[in-house]
TrEMBL record:
Region (Disordered): 1-53
Lineage: Bacteria, Pseudomonadati, Pseudomonadota, Gammaproteobacteria, Lysobacterales
Descriptive protein name: Transcriptional regulator
Regions of compositional bias (Basic and acidic residues) in chain numbering: 1-35
Source species: Fulvimonas yonginensis
Length: 53
């Protein structure tokens, strides 16, 4: 697992990251690279963890 606490992410964000990670691994990326890409993508789309109002 990559560094950083993932507890502040919603279930939807975690599912999205998992799906992206699996897709990257199918394309031949290493576990570490796939996970890094997945969380970077989720962060770019949603701006990080749960939104505070």
């Amino acid at each position: 697992m990559s560094k950083g606490d993932k507890s502040s992410y919603t279930d939807k964000q975690k599912r999205q990251a998992h799906h992206i990670e699996q897709s990257e691994k199918k394309e031949g990326k290493s576990q570490e690279a796939a996970e890094r890409i997945a969380w970077a993508t989720v962060n770019k789309q949603d701006g990080g963890g749960k939104k505070k109002s």
